[in-house]
Design brief:
This protein has 18 helices and three strands. A three-stranded antiparallel sheet has the order 2-1-3, with helices on one face. Strand 1 and strand 2 form a beta hairpin.
Length: 399
Amino acid sequence: MAQFRYTAQDYNGKKMTGIMNAADEGELQQKLHEQELFLVSSKETKSNKAKKQFKANVLGDFCRQLGTLTGAGVTLVRALTIIAQGESIKPKERVVYEDMMRQIKQGISLSEAMEAQNGVFPTLMIYMFRSAENSGNMEQVAMQMALLYEKEHRLNGKISSSMTYPKILSVMIIAVILILTKFVLPQFEEMFSAMESLPLSTSILMGISDFMQNYWFIAVAVLLGLWVGWKALLRAESFRRGWHRVLIHMPLIGKLQRTICTSRFARTLSSLYAAGIPLASCLQIARKTVGNDYIDAQFDRVIAFVRAGNNLSDGLDMVDGFTRKLTDSIRVGEETGSLDSMLASSADSMEYDADIAIGKMVSYVEPVMLIIMGIVVAFVLVSVFSAMYGSYDSIGGMA
């Protein structure tokens, strides 16, 4: 759907300008005619550049406020006005809400106004509110979306917080290495240089120390280059898909990845199916919320399989990356005729499994990072003291 900036006039000849979404100029003219306006001129705006999607906590807060206000009998325009004037609203968010409010005043539906924001709102939310507009249960759908995005925000927060301690340990390991190579080891350089031979570990350690003393900028440039190169590789679709495939098959991390991807898919599919959206459309939308390009790419075959009249559970069995528990639960729902309730319970179960998997991953990562730090420190101590003991033995032999 395109966005047009138009000039129109009413029966009294009063001209007015505005912005409206329409498939083409003919539909724009029809919409204006329904408002007793006549199109004078129009121009398609160049606002099709994709915008960054709102974070899950922002989406959840928006849906909760909208559900609460509309449930209390507040009109949609007034509800958006109240939301846009909130003290905690950021300027970019306020601009989006005010633009939606203007479009709704012009007769555009909420879902169309959300879609016109060019990626700010996810496809799932747009479809759910479009369903609510048709069924008249705006309040219930808005609160349902609020719960969904609040759960997603909590899950993302748990994943982020689970990596905080490993990140701190990684920084500490790097700091220890820098302190040892830049400040501690140079103190022993004069003594070690007077020795005829050094143990292999000491030679390696002094070589690293010399390199960091004289060519530290090369190390920084290499690390920065690796980081930039990795980001560039991830922007390539084929590489990103291959990397996502590796992730879900890694030991320990792979199980967590599969559980999280399954949890996201199950919750989205449950919400869409409960809203009465056709199953094939549910799959088309839910595939984009998984967060794994390798799994997403497999859904072309699954959707075609389901459209041919086959069971959803059999189609999902073909996806490499989902846990078996999901397809088993869906198969039971299909056999008992309670697919909607089974999808909801499966989503709850998958979210619980994701919490457990995150906790296990943290319990594995922390000791591994401590062991790595211990190995680094032990290597330095052994290298230094073995050389010192060697020098004492040489002095003793000469005596």
